[in-house]
């Protein structure tokens, strides 16, 4: 074993500024030209609202699969997960191997036939078919609000990089970045977003791989990294399950039960199966088989991406032991920009900056494009202006995209108040995604769930999660050591409250007629869900079950090195 190397805190400049030169800016400029070019090219294919909002349901599985993972590979992955690693250590692997892969497999194998077969344009529209207009309107409003908040997180993360790159004031960076994303989404709709996301996926990898490799080299390799962290933070900081026994202390502030139930089941399934920013990519696939394979294809790179975002966060925790505390000028969110400043030579720095900007634009574009779809189709077209020609809704979709970006600029300043944006994102997911998931799961597997139960389940789940976080946790009524631990408990509270209220309401209200549940409840099939097999369906990579269980087994195997 290598002799461990320990690092003292390095003196930090009052302002984090990346040492870029003409080569870096040239690389960045070329990328922006390509992004806008894709937007102009995609504009020619937008003729109907289906083209604008769902790419005409015409894209192959490999395109939608890469877009699916790229849409998630944004602030959540890059700054957020690196910040998470700097603060909590190797526990970050839980967000991937139990907090993503099983839910992505469930989405592909179980839920996509319901989404795609029912021909809905959005997740809330499915609730309209399964429950009633009350559940549909409430879920649409909650989703639209959440999409703007999450889009603001991505915009704030993007502004951190622009601020470090150019030295602009943060508010200027936020406004400029927001209007650039507005340009290419407004031009080409979802197709522009998806094709740019495929490009962004490879650019992001080109940014993260050298940063991780050079970071490991700086701290003496993996052995030097783990030895340094063990000495400074304790043994549990570099393990996945160490100290997670009930009643034990650990850096994450959560035990195995809240990790498995709160993160692995409720938060994970709530995000991956009901977040329309992700589901929208699968709905744009050319057929049901391609739609099912979309999240399964995305699951394989998801297994390994954890290393590219966790290692920089761990390296930052070694190089700057006081990161995120009052003794340092750096927040946890600054881990990636700090390593870029310290480690990357010009040229590679330009690629890394381009990759980060690509990641944040992908995340913001995913949320803005899902926001414009839900607001246009599920709110405006169904409750405000009904029965207009298709071209009107395309024009309105472009207008609401601009409004969504402006609103995201406002919520970006809210995100700036959090030292760890991952904790902020998980709080939002517990408030908005978890209640929607419980309504979906009960409605899909229980025929007796009544039409009225959807609305009251959503309301109860959202209220319970917020009460747990803002009242019980923030007012110290119950003792939870960390924000992330509180998020796990909030998610469990929201799920349980939503399920209990749905069962109670269903017992006293009328169920939906059986003939209206075909294709909406597990065990029923509608004609629209059946389709002839695509040519070559006998190939292993066209079999969703094989792809899905292969991803689960591989993710489970990855836990072995981090379990001791």
TrEMBL record:
Belongs to the sodium:solute symporter (SSF) (TC 2.A.21) family. It is a multi-pass membrane protein. The keyword Repeat does not apply. It comes from the Bacteria. GO terms for molecular function: D-glucose:sodium symporter activity. Its main location: membrane. This is Sodium:solute symporter. It is found in: Membrane. The chain crosses the membrane at residues 22-42, 62-83, 95-116, 137-162, 168-187, 199-216, 254-274, 295-320, 348-375, 396-415, 421-446, 453-473, 485-508, 545-562. One of its GO terms (cellular component) is plasma membrane. Keywords: Membrane, Transmembrane, Transmembrane helix. PROSITE patterns: NA_SOLUT_SYMP_3 (PS50283).
